[in-house]
Specification:
Elements (H helix, E strand, L loop, with lengths): L35 E3 L2 E4 L8 E6 L64 H6 L8 H10 E6 L9 E6 L9 E2 L15 E5 L13 E8 L7 E8 L2 E8 L7 E4 L1
Parallel strand pairs: 4-6
Antiparallel strand pairs: 1-2, 2-3, 3-11, 4-5, 5-7, 8-9, 9-10
């Protein structure tokens, strides 16, 4: 579990009727939104200042509500087991062999200057090609601060929980999060520009449909070199957090 969320006492979701579309009634599975395609994969223009365009699906998924694949940070293929014992770039948190700027965490004092994933280690680029990349921490921060987030417990009648992330319609909506017990603005519906981030949990199925964890391409450059930045969420909280690099987590691709 991402470190920022260990304080949640329970994964039990509260009952509500919010389907995540803002209008509280339009939840037809036929409703969809896309701005275009890049190398065969759909994207949405959320009007972000950086011009970043976000994919409509997780890497490994074919629909927004599908969880897709799980990847360790810096690895490009899913696997059955995720741990330090089979992590590509280090056998322990103080035995890293790539992406390490602090000798304490490097194997035999190893360091390099790498703080962002190389394309060869970027799961979005390797699996989707074209201009697709994993988002940086800055791009995830922007998504958090510039969009209007609504918790959905039944996205498009799929019974999948997660956050609908809308293109904000006003400056006052930017960075606003409507949690499980909130009422979203009636001016938003699924016909508006949005992406859906399903609460896919971790690779082993733990916390699925309750928590979501999405890798960035950015190394944690503090005294936590064995971790990388991600965006994590639950029905009553969203945060930039960080997780051990061997964790199997979701990837949502972007391009500019």
């Amino acid at each position: 579990m991402s470190l920022s969320f260990v304080a949640f006492a329970s994964c039990e979701d509260k009952d509500n009727t919010n389907d995540g579309n803002g209008s509280m009634s339009e939840n037809s599975s036929s409703v969809s939104y896309s701005s275009g395609t890049e190398n065969g994969h759909e994207y949405v223009d959320l009007g972000l200042p950086s011009g970043t365009l976000w994919a409509t699906c997780n890497v490994g998924a074919t629909k927004p509500e599908e969880f897709g694949n799980y990847y360790a940070w810096g690895e490009v293929e899913p696997k059955e087991y995720y741990g330090w014992s089979n992590y590509k770039y280090g056998s322990a948190y103080i035995a890293l062999t790539k992406y390490c700027t602090d000798s304490y965490y490097g194997k035999d004092g190893f360091t390099d200057s790498k703080t962002t994933l190389d394309l060869s280690d970027d799961a979005a680029y390797v699996n989707w090609g074209g201009k697709w990349r994993m988002p940086t921490k800055a791009q995830q921060d922007e998504l958090r601060s510039e969009c209007y987030w609504v918790w959905a417990r039944n996205y498009k009648n799929s019974s999948v929980r997660g956050y609908v992330v809308y293109k904000a319609k006003s400056s006052s909506d930017k960075g606003v999060s409507i949690y499980y017990d909130g009422t979203p603005s009636s001016s938003y519906s699924l016909s508006d520009a949005h992406i859906f981030l399903p609460a896919a949990g971790l690779h082993d199925g733990s916390n699925a449909n309750f928590y979501g964890y999405y890798w960035s391409s950015s190394l944690t450059q503090t005294d936590e070199q064995h971790t990388a930045w991600d965006i994590g969420f639950h029905s009553d909280g969203i945060s930039m957090s960080y997780s051990a690099r061997y964790y199997g987590q979701s990837v949502r691709a972007v391009f500019k």
